[in-house]
Amino acid sequence: MSEKSPFPLIQTPQFLLRKIVADDLCTIFRGMSDPRVTEYYGISYETLELTQAQLDWFELIYETGTGIWWGICHRDEPQHLIGTCGINEWEQDDHCAEAGFWIFPEYWGKGVMHECLSAMLDYCFTKLSLHRMQSMVEPDNPASWKLIEKLGFQLEGILRECERKGDRYVDLRCYSLLAREWRNRTQPSATIMHLPTST
Ligand SMILES: CC(C)(COP(=O)(O)OP(=O)(O)OC[C@H]1O[C@@H](n2cnc3c(N)ncnc32)[C@H](O)[C@@H]1OP(=O)(O)O)[C@@H](O)C(=O)NCCC(=O)NCCS
Q1: What is the mean pLDDT of residues 176-180?
Q2: What is the best residue among 146, 165, 175 to mutate for testing ligand 1's pocket, by most ligand atoms within 8 Å of CB?
Q3: Residues lining ligand 1, CB < 6 A?
Q4: Number of domains within the chain
Q5: Does residue 24 belong to any structural domain of this protein?
Q6: Which of 24, 40, 192, 194 is surrounded by the fewest CB atoms within 10 Å?
Q7: Going by CA atoms, what residue is nearest to atom 27 of ligand 1?
Q8: For this UniProt entry, which segments traverse the membrane (predicted)?
Q9: Mutational test site, ligand 1, from 114, 137, 187, max ligand atoms within 8 Å of CB
Q10: What is the CATH number of the domain that holds 44?
Q11: Cβ atoms within 10 Å, residue 22
Q12: Considering the chain, what percentage of its residues have pLDDT values greater than 90?
């Protein structure tokens, strides 16, 4: 995606998925230094300064067309980030990518991420022409794998001890969702608007 392309905004009934900007640094640091958020997330930061690397990465994947990462806000509070979601490892020739997500614990269990990921998946399958979305989740993180199962992702298998975590190796559950499965889903998604407006 070139620098001239407007960053894609996505609107759901309750939320706005928007570009993550420099002013979000403190909020991203607060999330990515909270052990409740990062326990199964894989990335965490100890200082505000180090967290800048995450914002740089959001910019890099967008500019190189290898991913898009959105900040999640309530529609009436667009400055106030409550979490993030996005895709990386976007292979434009193979039309596949990997999804990731987190929100602050005070918003857990209220259907926020289900609504936001529904919108993100819809955008990726319809506007980006993705064919396959993948997600890797630790077995001890049912909040995540039940969320993606509810969205229609299918378990492909377990990657045994494929990730180093402290002094041990952990398994990862490998999930995928194909475009045709998304199109043929039985559960309706929230009404979604894609707003190709730059911020
Ligand atoms: C995973 C996470 C994003 C879920 O977000 P959320 O907004 O709380 O999820 P939702 O409320 O939309 O839940 C949707 C579905 O997911 C499942 N789910 C969510 N939280 C769950 C929990 N604690 N236990 C079991 N299932 C859960 C349920 O099936 C739920 O549907 P239901 O409410 O109809 O039963 C959130 O827990 C989080 O940010 N965790 C920390 C970061 C993280 O682990 N990221 C993923 C790394 S792979």
Answers
A1: 98
A2: 146
A3: 37, 40-41, 101-103, 108-114, 137, 141-144, 146-147, 150
A4: 1
A5: yes
A6: 194
A7: 143
A8: none
A9: 114
A10: 3.40.630.30
A11: 8
A12: 89
User: Is 154 among the domain residues?
Assistant: no
pLDDT tens for residues 44-78? 999 999 999 999 999 999 999 999 999 999 999 99
- 124-176 confidence digits (pLDDT tens): 999 999 999 999 999 999 999 999 999 999 999 999 999 999 999 999 999 99
**CA gap 20, 29 in Å, rounded:** 13
Report the nearest atom of ligand 1 relative to the CA of 85. 3
Q: For residue 186, which amino acid is it?
A: T
Q: Which range of residues forms the domain containing residue 48?
A: 9-130+188-195
If you measure from the C-alpha of residue 64 to the centroid of ligand 1, how many angstroms do you get, rounded to a whole number?
A: 30
Residue 185's pLDDT is what? 87
> Could you tell me how far CA 63 lies from the centroid of its own chain?
17
Which candidate, 94, 118, 139, 140, places its Cα nearest to that of 17? 118
